[in-house]
Amino acid sequence: MYKITSVRATSLVAGNMIGSGVLLAPALLAPYGTMSLVGWCLTTLGALALALVFSRLSIWIPKSGGPYTFAKHVFGDFVGFQMAWGYWISAWCGSASLLAGALQYMSIFCPEWIANPMFSMCFGCSMIWIFTFFNIKGIKASTSIEIIITTIKILPLIIVAVVGIFFVDFSNVFNMADISKHGIESLGKMSGVLLWAFIGLESATIPADNVENPKRTIPLATISGVLIVAAVYICGAIVIGGVIPAEQLAVSKAPYVDAARGIFGEWGATIMAVTGIIGIVGSLNGWILIQGQVPLSAAEEGLFPKYFAKTNKNGAPNGVVVGSSLMTVLFLLTYQPAIVEYVNVLIDISVMSMLLPYFYSAIAFCYMAVMNKEQLSKTEKITLPIVGLVSILYTFSAIFGLGEHLISLAFIMFLVSVPFYCTIKKN
Questions:
Q1: Half-sphere exposure of 318 (CA within 13 A, CB side)
Q2: pTM for the whole thing?
Q3: Local confidence band at 292 (pLDDT 50, 70, 90 cut-offs)
Q4: First to last CA, the chain
Q5: Dihedral sign, CA of 120, 122, 128, 131?
Q6: Which of these, 88, 375, 354, lies nearest to 198 by C-alpha position?
Q7: Does the domain formed by 6-426 have CATH 3.40.50.10810?
């Protein structure tokens, strides 16, 4: 069986995080001004805490499945099933938003094509099944594609962040009036968009059985991926906020493209737009891999239908095709010309579906820290509880910040899973 190396695992982590979230976030957060930068910094601290949580859990519980496996190990089958259910839904539901983000970037070149629903739907469906094909060929093929796509999407962002710093008007970036105007309550309003940009940080833990030397590779890939992406996000937010006026940024369809135009001219904007499209669409590759691995792990332990435990001759699970089919249906049913609104709806659903697995993983981490306290060093006995507490507070505040409507929607979504669980357990 082919094993994922540390480079491929890091590419999977970084590639799954960098997608429509970072490329569209500056426009979605523009109304909050400098407060959005505070939000980025706080979210980065929370993401790093979660990265440490997943890294250590992958050592204590060395099995595929990621958040599902961690929750099941500590809380039992029912909670484990619901975490797999929520994570699986988030994987293919959130992937549909990537297509909307790509279409928004494409509207820079061919607005008349994007205005045609038939073209947009055909484009979205074709992208889903192209990357599904790569994943059907097996983990080696999909992770090879992932390295190429991650390189294409991250290099232009780094160049804009490094060169753009010399074009920044720092009076626009660090405006204390914005902080006093919006206040701490604005962090809750921004939490969905901010957290969406870091969703996927746990990606290396999910195919753990296919990872080379997982006890070393998974923590290294997880923490390295988060640090790389966080640096790109924060530097990019500073440059975009300092190069593009706030009122222009709020209505921008492609903030990084507008920033590249201001820094390099039209040729820079064109390169950024092309790599942005490739990067956003390419994020489908990693998420399609994930949407097959999670139900595979659950099915192998009797918590998903047996069909999901089957694989083809390349080792690709049946869940890849099932998830892509559901993603296609969702995309066709919910696509609408108002792309930004469409992206926001899918982002909120995906983030809510993912937050509960994160929250349970943080609690599982604290439980495992107590159960393994005799194996911990004196330093770890102090630092690990702090990491666990930060992770719990971070995920809980993010859930609370999403509002009553989304919490109610998530409750219904997980409630619907109960009959499925009872049926599967009975069989």
A1: 11
A2: 0.84
A3: confident
A4: 31
A5: negative
A6: 354
A7: no
